[in-house]
Amino acid sequence: MSESQSIAVHEQFDDLAQQRESAHLGMWLFLGTELMFFGGVFLGFTVYRVTYSRAFMEAARHLDLVMGSINTYILLTSSFLYSLAISTFRARRRGPTLVLLGLAMLLGIIFLGIKGFEYHKDWRHGLMPGPAFTYHGPDHDHVLLFFVLYFIATGLHALHLLIGVFATLVLIALVVRSWFIKDREVAIEVFGLYWHFVDFIWIFIFPLFYLLGGP
Amino acid sequence: MTENARPASLLTFVCLAALLGVTILLSRLPLGPWRVVVVLLLAAGQGLLVILNFMRVRLNSPLIWVAAGASFLWLGILFTLALSDYLSRAATW
Which one of B10, B50, B64 has the shortest CB-CB distance to A28? Predict the structure, then answer.
């Protein structure tokens, strides 16, 4: 495919800039629905946090702050690498782009691994809602509610990250096969928006669940 | 935009990492009810940095500003109306 063909503007757009803006707008509208979706979970958590404040603070102390903090740093770093990948892609440097995308994806996988390890630890300590829930301290029901919300919020986030990892894999394949095509720039930017958004959601999950329990 | 993207990203990342460190440290201090305020404000600062710099809303057109901002406006309405109910109930205090 030649360069002139590749930068063709689709017929419904006036120019490449408008085409690019439309792609960004579409992704932002999708992210808006995602924000509403996670917003509902956050609102539910906030209401119960206010209502059962003592139980939720007690429950939060059972989460692993070290693993949560490491995971937050991992996601922030992956977002940084993704944003560098967009810059190197724009500069038409295929090697660095592939390395950066690969590293960002790897960090996403490491995040999921640590999260899985944390889930396993919660399960062993009897904190996983269901038959395995064996917490017998005070405020049993409200502590259970905290862990239900915790597994819903972090589970949905992990699912989004998993989708992001697969999307990045597709993107890497696109870069390997047709990195020179100019209008692929939009694809990497739009995938990047999704990746950063998943990071953005975690930026709020982490303090709400891990930090508000207090020392 | 392309030339400036890398230093801006690095600066954003350093600020994010520093803000996260401060958030974690402050959350371990006995701040009482202020902990919630401090921790959530610092988280909002991190979120804003990601949206403006990593997601490049800062460099984008007004249309994208409106699209991105509208989502938060609706979220704000959701939280304001719901919490004005729950927080004003006598039983929660």
Answer: B64
Residue indicated by tokens 């919630």: B36
Q: Does the residue A164 lie in any domain? A: yes
Cβ-based burial of A51 (10 A; exposed 0-12, middle 13-18, buried ≥19): middle
**Which residues, in sequence order, are CB contacts of A184 under 8 Å at separation 6+?**
A89, A174, A175, A178
Each domain of chain B, given as residue ranges in start order, spans 1-59, 61-93
Rounded-to-integer distance, Cα B84 and Cα A131, Å: 36
ipTM of the complex: 0.90
Q: What are the average pLDDT values for consecutive 10-residue runs of chain A, which has 215 residues?
A: 57 87 94 96 94 92 95 97 91 90 98 97 93 88 96 97 96 81 78 96 96 78
- Cα–Cα distance, B91 to B93 (Å, whole number): 6
For chain B, what's the residue count? 93
Q: Which of B4, B11, B31, B71 to mutate to test the interface with A (most CBs of A within 10 A)?
A: B71
CATH number for the domain that contains residue A182: 1.20.120.80
Q: Are A209 and A150 in contact (CB under 8 A)?
A: yes
Count up the domains in chain A and report the number: 1
Which residues form the domain of A42?
Answer: 13-211
